[in-house]
Design a protein that fits this description.
This protein is α/β, with parallel strands linked by helices. The chain has 7 helices and 15 strands. The two termini are 30 Å apart.
Length: 304
């Protein structure tokens, strides 16, 4: 699990790497300290695709995710050196494969192996699950079933026992968090609310308050006042996570300071000259937006 700042809530940021330089998550710190603002930064997003020949779920990395992962010394290691945990988000991709329709333990295990290999190969700190855009039933895939997700996270936990596994609380998975005496909290470290601008406690059996995030904000669309109110509630109610999404490439110091002052009693500092554009200019091959998941950049979340 990630280490909180003086028993304060963890600050989690999803970074949409189709649009934003992932390294920018390391540019913000708490004023007057060496503590990074974000405790966890999530690469959004890798995908679950479906191989119609083998009838198996596969791990897909679009060109932007690939650029980040193939250049971890530039995009990932500097964050980890500051103490930021880096996770890879796993998202459906309209092909019928998802975290809720593995047909048996063997299928769940096979996909868990792919995820564990990615964590190890790229030196990441864990996996985050997001049950959106799977479109269960496409390619004659099965519907969500009660055992799939529990089998998946059980197998993944056995493969990466010391890494973080988290759940974005949305979709069919939210009603499939227990099976055969096992509960999701046996294998997950955290879960957080998915509806930006709201305060809703995820109902995940087995997780305690310090593992849950009821507040969720979109930095580009949730008002600063709402973000601050949600931070106040999170702190007052004793929950352990505050979730943010859509870190922009531009200076967000003022917005983030409004939150950090409430959560940690310190303003946010942006390191001078730290922000970098996306796609990278001249360092690596040109990056193009994947056509496989056109909804990713908005995720539909701001509209909910």
């Amino acid at each position: 699990m990630a280490k909180p700042k003086a028993n304060s809530p963890l600050n989690v940021m999803y970074v949409e790497v189709n649009d934003v330089n992932f390294a920018n998550a390391g540019c913000y710190s708490l004023t007057g300290s060496t503590d990074p603002l974000f405790d966890i930064a999530i690469i959004f997003a890798a995908n679950i695709n479906f191989d119609t020949a083998t009838r198996k779920a596969t791990l897909f990395l679009n060109p932007n995710v690939t650029t980040v992962l193939q250049n971890v010394e530039t995009y990932v290691r500097p964050l980890q050196a500051k103490g930021i945990k880096v996770l890879l988000s796993i998202l459906g991709n309209h092909e019928g494969a998802g975290i809720c329709n593995f047909e048996n333990e063997s299928a769940a295990h096979d996909f868990a192996v792919l995820l564990a290999n990615a964590v190890r190969d790229y030196g990441l700190d864990g996996i985050d699950f997001d049950d959106e855009y799977s479109e269960y039933g496409n390619n004659n895939t099965g519907p969500p079933n009660p055992s799939s997700f529990i089998y998946l996270i059980r197998e993944l936990r056995s493969l990466i026992p010391d890494k973080i596994i988290s759940l974005y609380y949305y979709g069919p998975v939210t009603s499939r968090l227990s099976y055969d005496g096992m509960v999701a909290g046996d294998f997950l470290d955290y879960s957080w609310n998915s509806i930006y601008g709201t305060y809703q406690v995820p109902n995940v059996p087995g997780l305690e308050k310090n593992q849950l995030g009821p507040a969720a904000v979109n930095v580009t669309s949730t008002s600063a006042g709402t973000a601050q109110n949600l931070a106040t509630r999170t702190k007052a109610d004793g929950y352990g996570v505050y979730l943010m999404y859509a870190l922009p490439n531009t200076n967000a110091q003022a917005y983030l300071s409004g939150v950090s002052t409430i959560l940690y009693g310190k303003e946010t500092t942006l390191a001078g000259g730290c922000l970098r554009p996306w796609p990278p200019q001249g360092q690596f091959p040109a990056v193009t937006r994947s056509r496989a998941h056109p909804q990713d950049s908005s995720r539909g979340r701001a509209r909910r």
